[in-house]
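Researcher: Sequence recovery benchmark, item below. Answer with residues only.
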C-alpha cells in the first residue's frame, strides 16, 4: 500500500560539497492494486505512487484474480505499461499523462 507523502522516509545529507558533485536517486516501483472499499472486484492499478489509466473507449473489464493481473503487468517504455489479460491487451499510462484519449481508471473483474 502506498504511504501518504507525510509518512515517507526522509534523508539528510551533510557533507562538504565540491563542484560537479552529484546525487543520484533511484526508485524501485512495484505494481499494486487498490480496491474500492465497497467492492473488491473494482480496483485501480498503481505503479509506485502513480495511478495508471487504461487507454480504452469501453468499460475496463478484466478476468482472473488480483495476483494474475499483477503478474501480467509490464513496463513497456517511458510512461507506457501493458496489461495482458487473456486475449486482450491494454495499454496503460499515468493518469497525469492522459490528454484527449478515452480512458478507464477503475477496472472490474468479471469471469464471463
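Model:
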Amino acid at each position: 500500500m502506498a504511504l501518504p507523502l507525510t509518512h515517507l522516509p526522509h534523508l539528510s545529507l551533510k557533507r562538504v560539497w565540491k563542484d560537479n558533485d552529484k546525487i543520484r536517486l533511484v526508485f524501485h516501483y512495484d505494481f499494486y492494486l487498490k480496491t474500492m472499499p465497497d467492492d473488491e472486484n473494482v480496483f485501480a492499478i498503481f505503479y509506485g505512487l502513480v495511478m495508471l489509466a487504461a487507454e480504452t473507449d469501453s468499460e475496463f473489464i478484466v478476468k482472473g484474480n488480483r495476483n494474475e493481473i499483477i503478474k501480467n503487468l509490464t513496463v513497456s517504455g517511458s510512461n507506457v505499461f501493458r496489461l495482458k489479460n487473456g486475449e486482450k491487451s491494454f495499454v496503460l499510462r499515468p493518469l497525469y499523462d492522459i490528454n484527449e484519449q478515452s480512458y478507464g481508471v477503475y477496472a472490474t473483474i468479471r469471469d464471463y
